[in-house]
Each structure stands twice: as C-alpha cells, then as structure tokens.
Amino acid sequence: MADQEGGDDNEIGVKLAVRPKTKRPPLYKVLILNDDYTPMEFVVQVLERFFQMNHAQAFELMLTVHKKGVAVVGVFTYEIAETKVAMVMDFAQRHQHPLQCTMEKE
C-alpha cells in the first residue's frame, strides 16, 4: 500500500510541473483631460455614471482635473479601459462637449 501512495505523489508532482503559470493582463489608466469649455457638473456626471463614483468622489476628482489638467479616473484591463474611453467620448459628443478621455499603459 505504501507503493500506491508513492505513485500518487509522483503523479501529482508531474501535474504541478506541467501546469502553466498564468500572467496577469497588463493594466491601463483611463485619464480625463481638462478643457476650457466642458462644464464642471458634466464632468462630475461622467465620473458618477461611467466610473461608479459617489457625488463627493466625483466632485473631488473633477477639481483635480480642473487644477492639474488631467487625472486618472480608473485602472482597468485593456478591453474595459477601451470601452470606458469610447463610452465617455460618445457621451460627451452627444452632449456637444469637447471633453477628452484617453488611456495609457500603467
């Protein structure tokens, strides 16, 4: 019976040796850029709607964008970041605001 247990250990060892290691996908920062035309309240609305921030968080981040010219609004996998950027840009265009949203690798 001891031989059978030893056999199981070897099989487990082989399985672990062959098992591939998974890599984490690269992450991307989504950025909102300041401009002189988009109303501050619209930026707050975008942050609440697309980045699930409460009003206080959105207002604080909007002020950062206003003062510093740019702010990271979230970090996501490529596909999610790309979708968020597209949704924000589409929303801004539909409301006739020049708000810019971009992404860059973290």
Low-confidence stretches: none
What's the arrangement of strands in the largest beta sheet? 2-1-3
Mean pLDDT: 89
Q: Bin the strand percentage.
A: 15-25%
Descriptive overview:
The relative contact order is 0.22. This protein has helices at 2-18, 40-51, 55-68, 78-94, and strands at 27-33, 70-77, 100-105. By secondary structure, the protein is α+β, with helices and mostly antiparallel strands. It has 4 helices and 3 strands, in the order αβααβαβ. Helices cover 57% and strands 20% of the residues. α2 packs across α3. It is elongated, with a radius of gyration of 23 Å. A 3-stranded antiparallel β-sheet has the order 2-1-3.
Features:
106 residues; alpha+beta; 3 strands; elongated
Write the layout of secondary structure elements.
Layout lengths: L1 H17 L8 E7 L6 H12 L3 H14 L1 E8 H17 L5 E6 L1
Antiparallel strand pairs: 1-2, 1-3
Describe the structure in brief.
With 106 residues, this protein is of the alpha+beta class. The chain has four helices and three strands, in the order H-E-H-H-E-H-E.
